[in-house]
Protein: Putative TPR repeat-containing protein
Amino acid sequence: MGPDFDRRVVIWDETSRDYLVFVKEVAALRGRADGARSRDEAFDNHMALGRALYEHHLFRDALRSFRRACELHPTDVRAHFRAGNTLYALSRHAEAKEEFLLALEAAEAGGAQSADILPQIHVNLGIAMEGEGMILGACEHYREAAILCPTHFRALKLLGSALFGVGEYRAAVKALEEAVFLRPDYADAHCDLGSALHAMGEDERAIQEFQKAIDLKPGHVDALYNLGGLFMDAGRFARASEMYTRVLAVRPNNWRAQLNKAVALLGAGETEEAKKALKEAFKMTQRVEVYDAIAHLKTLQKKKKLPKGNGAEGEMAFLIVEPSKFKRVGRKTTLRQDLATALDIRAFQRVTRWSRCDVDLLEKEMNETDVPISYSGGGVAEKSIRKAALEVILRKLLRFLKPETFQGAVKAINEKVLSVLDATGSGRIDLGMFFAVLAPICSGLLEKRKRAVFDALLWRSNSDGGTQIRRSDAIAYIKLLRAVYIPSHGVSDMLELHGESDPSMVSYAEFLEMFNDSDWGFGILGTLVKLEAGDRIRHGQHTCSICRYPIIGSRFKETKYRFSLCNRCYSEGKVPSDCKQEEYRFKEYGSESEAMKDKCLCFNLHSKSSQGDP
Structure:
């Protein structure tokens, strides 16, 4: 039996006569159980009482019975297993995990007589770990359950869902296909298979799987919602709106479905209906992003309708200009290509919440983590650990995240970082390189971040307290760093260098020169720090001439036509279609005070010129 059931806890009025009678009767039964003639009989009595209470969803009382059974027979698999299920039902996931680990230990020690229950312990342990947000660890246990029992369709479904959750879509599809082969009427497995196929771009197959889930269970909310998302991505807005309407028929308070319905209606040209749906979504949740969407829709409606161009009707048409036509006024104005890369890294920081992890915590974790040095096939020293063990370290560093948010962070890190660090698919990660790759995007002073990078590379391969690292390690690190964060650079160059053994050493000062190089190092870090500092900068009433949103962060003003762009539109090379010219010259303003200072400077220069000053 797994712990993913309808967890309705019976709530008693503890002042009522019925509750007092119930407590008295249960106490009497426990007393009779403890008064049994032998320890084995007492154990059986407490287990039977616990199961009866559990089946009636009286979980707190059931837990007392299972805990007493654990005291009577500390190495009994069944008692720990049942206690784990009950703790999960009470949403005490960390305690449930500990009980399942004890059950696993007892089952492995029990040999052949515990073989039947072993796959289910792995499944339930995985479910408890997912409850804590530990999805990579859960994958290992689901995989182990499927190995022990190849026909365990539920283990395969959970494995596929977890793999999808960390962005490993191909492996997810394989596990989910096996699950639906073993159990064709498994609606949840069809739904998750549809999601994995959609993530891989196989939309026609995905639609079929979502439809199978809906046919098996007409009110399958996840299948309806995900099918709506697929139709949205495909531009089939009317069909998307229909799916979200069906979700709301089952779950009237689903604000996300209501918001997505509004977006779908807007895409279908139903502006008035979209506005009504947005207002309903805002009533449900009061979230600021819904309020911003309503404000944006109102802004678009106020604008005069322009001829259709690259933009939709009601929005200003725009052109996308090649990078060479974007010129800078002053060295402080950020290059368009650099800004695009830095914005992608900033988005990664936001998804993972890594910019809330202080670099001092990373240094502390590095100093406190004891991992033995091992040698790869190329003879390179490293401290490597399995992905599930790395996830435990991540949980400590991101302890402030809720489980579901942490899962999203792990997915992003797995897709962007671990996929590069484990390019061979071994399942092991060079921990020193991992710390060094993430150190630059932590919070903290810029110099501290760079120092943490060097310290991680020292920690990775140094056991004698040296102060220098191998030049080959430094070069390999920078190539890997660029492969992770700068999309135009692959991992192939880094892999080519991996086996080299340059005997020369570099100091921290020499490493900094390599790191700061704008062409071959990670000079983009300065632009990223500027973005971090500008998150809360607003520019009065200035809105972007393309997207019409208020400008937050840097404002890029074109000096001839005097239109303004936000960070994103500038990085994408968008300009208004009625401002066509051979080149565009932009000046960057970090705040409104800088723009005012610039105006004052221009005024003073003109005044001096009128007086004949040079």
The longest strand covers residues 538-543. The chain has 28 helices and 14 strands. The chain has a mean pLDDT of 86.
